[in-house]
Amino acid sequence: MKRAQHRSSGELRELLIVELRRAANISQRALARRLGVALGTVNRLLNDMVEAGYIQVSNRDVRPFAYSVTTDGHRYQRSLGLEHYSSVLHSFRKLQQRFRAKLRELKSRGVERVVLYGAGDIMTATSRIAKAVGLQVVGLVDDDLTKQGARNGGRVIEPPSVISELEPDAILITTLRQAEEIQRSLGASLRSSVEVWEL
Question: Rounded to two decimals, what is the model's pTM?
């Protein structure tokens, strides 16, 4: 479950409205479980949004309360969704700039042939940017057996054991979570001229 500390207040409010639109008669405890937050957080958010006119309590005589999302609440949800989308897009653009700078630095050091290590969205984005800056992506690898054999951008993801055959100038780690682990696993298996870079 995604915990509250990784969510903005706006994202929590948007998710809360989504849950209330799905089920009006729902306890605060159930909402807290679904959102992955403390009961007190749900109570505070509901009170704030009732006060702002985004949510109303339809019937205080039943337990749990019957909540309904007002017309203003529907507009507020759309506005929160756009705000969240803009924030994600901004973060993605910043990541792309970071990747582009890293790849240009590789290119400036004389690197021509790269292997991308770590399948996923970052690999896909990095592969496109690498081509745009003039690097040749000679292979995609991942040590996860479930990802090997799958295609990413028209190229098959292979096991790391093929790296030597691909004769890259550099390996670019395209996962943010296991970079140190990958560095260690590559260890002495590479010829000394092959550089290993993290994004």
Answer: 0.60
